Amino acid sequence: MDQELMRVGISLPENLLNKFDEIILHRGYSSRSEGVRDAIRSYIVNFEWMSDVQGERVGVITIVYAHSQRGLEDNLTEIQHEFGGLIQSSLHVHLDHDNCLEVVVLRGEGQDVRKAAERMMSLKGVKHVKLTTTSLGKEL
Ligand code: NI
Q1: What backbone torsions phi and psi does residue 134 show, to the nearest 5 degrees?
Q2: How many CA atoms lie within 13 A of 8 on its CB side?
Q3: CATH number at residue 26
Q4: For 37, phi and psi rounded to 5 degrees?
Q5: Which is it for the CA torsion 96, 97, 98, 103, positive or negative?
Q6: I need a labelling partner for 134 at 20 to 30 A (CA). Which of 7, 25, 39, 104 fits?
Q7: pLDDT at site 53
Q8: What does the DSSP 8-state code read for residue 122?
Q9: Per residue in 1-44, pLDDT tens?
Q10: Residue 107 maps to which CATH number?
Q11: Which residues surround ligand 1, an ion (CB under 5 A)?
Q12: Does the global pTM surpass 0.85?
């Protein structure tokens, strides 16, 4: 079913747009709009996948962020304390002058693991968050 197309205007940092344009050129998209539609679909699929994470899980959250963002490290620490009952371990790597990587391993109810990841994703200055989950291996 063909849907009516809506026009939206968005503001993006130049380097992000340049990188996006590079990728859609490389992948052979016919237009920037087609690339954006695909990116939004991936975002939705990922959200739906995260909403489906149920039962006891081990989760690994990988976060890349700009450490110069005011208040961000405090907020990340606060979230980790809030979910302290789930967190098994964390690792911090100073990637370069501007960027830090944090890997947090959690264990608990899948939806709580998801909530922790979503809280981190929504913070300003966070560039990338990836959540992977695995079972505890008992039933495998
Ligand atoms: Ni660092």
Answers
A1: -140, 160
A2: 11
A3: 1.10.1220
A4: -60, -45
A5: positive
A6: 39
A7: 87
A8: T
A9: 678 999 999 999 999 999 999 999 999 999 999 999 999 999 99
A10: 3.30.70.1150
A11: 94, 100
A12: no
Cα-to-centroid distance, 63 and ligand 1 (Å): 11
Query: Nearest Cα to 64, choosing from 133, 15, 113, 123?
Result: 123
Pick from 89, 76, 85: which is nearest to 117 by CA?
76
Neighbours of 27 (CB within 10 A): 10
Closest Cα partner for 113 from 139, 91, 135?
135
Amino acid at 86: L
Total domains in the chain come to 2
CA distance 72 to 99: 12
Which domain covers residue 119, as residue numbers? 55-134
Distance from the alpha carbon of residue 31 to the mean position of ligand 1, in angstroms: 37
Q: Which of 40-49, 58-67, 129-138 has the highest mean pLDDT?
A: 58-67
**For residue 95, how far is its CA from the centre of ligand 1 (angstroms)?**
7
Sort strands 56-66 and 99-109 into parallel, antiparallel or unpaired.
Answer: antiparallel
Q: Could you tell me if 99 and 34 are in contact, meaning their C-beta atoms sit under 8 angstroms apart?
A: no
